[in-house]
Amino acid sequence: KAGVTQTPRYLIKTRGQQVTLSCSPISGHRSVSWYQQTPGQGLQFLFEYFSETQRNKGNFPGRFSGRQFSNSRSEMNVSTLELGDSALYLCASSSGIQGASTDTQYFGPGTRLTVL
Amino acid sequence: QQQVKQSPQSLIVQKGGISIINCAYENTAFDYFPWYQQFPGKGPALLIAIRPDVSEKKEGRFTISFNKSAKQFSLHIMDSQPGDSATYFCAASTDKLIFGTGTRLQVFP
Fold it and tell me: Nearest-CA distance from A89 to chain B in Å?
């Protein structure tokens, strides 16, 4: 079974621009979660989508948004980029059936976003 | 109350030694405690996990010890190997995963 894939792997943007990141979950998985990883703040939960609906949300500003398509693929969008948005953005998929608590999350390799 | 505190930040262990990483939490609603291992350039991968109704779980060289009353849990890596060199994250979950800050483990031959 193919793992979680994320595109692109690397991205360089300038302040004020917007960016869209893509995530393809493991086949059959219906839940996709997004995380931001930085050296200072560690791994922080952004949001979770299940069956095209946002099921949970972390404490990030509205500039961060996402969506999920009927095939479970997900995109994350960041508008009006700031320098502090430079990070590794990780996507994780899970079956979503047991509920987020104990449902194993499988992470992709991430998208490294650099904002100049 | 949502935080998970992890220590140490970095750890250097000789091959064959025991690596111990500790985590503490405040939110008693957490009901699932996984540990993730992350190698450079890769996403985190689930290593081992425990529920709060169990005090210890062992899988091969990896053991989680869980102390519900103290709200602490730890990862023990027995017979540490150079291939174990990675960053380890504890986490706690109710409806979403809250991660600790990570421990960079280096195992020297």
Answer: 10
